[in-house]
Amino acid sequence: MLIIGEKINVMLKQIGQAMKDRDKKPIQDLAVSQVQAGANALDINAGPATKNGPEIMQWLVNTVQEVTDVTLSLDTTNAEAMEAGLQVCKNPAIINSTSGDRAKLETIMPMAKKYDADVIGLTMTSAGVSRDANERVAIAVDIMTAMAEFDVPVERLYLDPLILPVGVAQNQAMEVVEAIKMFRQLNDPPIKSVVGLSNVYNGTPERLHSILSSTYLVMLMTVGLDAAIADPMDQRLMESMKTARLFKNDILYCDSYLE
């Protein structure tokens, strides 16, 4: 299970201000803390980055790379900022993300090929989020077809079925579960999957965040989820993930866990 730390996000007040001030310390402290808590990769979310986007993204990437060498997931809707970030990544990165829209695919796939990057493919289009698992799979096929067209190995793809907040779209929780099962049938070896886990509790009381995300993560892992953009500093979440890996036999020797 790949855990991509979600905390370096322009929407967080502390990070947004640090980006504005070009203050490295809060960003580097959070990068180190997430890795120490168990993150295997770090998401760097610069948002729209409409002003000085390329410069901001390169500064963020270099700032994080000064303190850790884990894989970076670059998250911005600004294509120029995305490529600028990819240019300075020391290791192959993850592009977060593309949708099933043709224009988006034509922008992102050449970057993925040029920089040997993995791609998160959101199973949605400009028409909105898919209504059920079948619609998610149809868009997944479009994304896979585009990868072949642009000569990007399908092994670099992470399909994201798009979690919606349980408080407003309760019926979608199981559609995501079903979509992940169906994604695995699209290719041999199976296509990898990823979710933005925190979306599940958006709009709910804070006291419910940990139990909602940890329970849902275990449910998704049982049907084959490969990665989650999540909060690695949530101890319950990380303990649930490790316990699920134990029961799934992903951990060869369980003695150290049981002790």
Automatic annotation (TrEMBL):
One Pfam family matching this protein: Pterin_bind
Keyword terms of this UniProt record: Methyltransferase, Transferase
GO CC field: cytosol
GO biological process, one term: pteridine-containing compound metabolic process
Residue stretches making up the Pterin-binding domain: 1-248
GO molecular function: methionine synthase activity
InterPro entries: Dihydropteroate_synth-like_sf, Met_Synthase/Corrinoid, Pterin-binding_dom
UniProt similarity note: Belongs to the vitamin-B12 dependent methionine synthase family.
Entry-linked PANTHER family: METHIONINE SYNTHASE (PTHR45833)
Protein name, per record: Dihydropteroate synthase DHPS
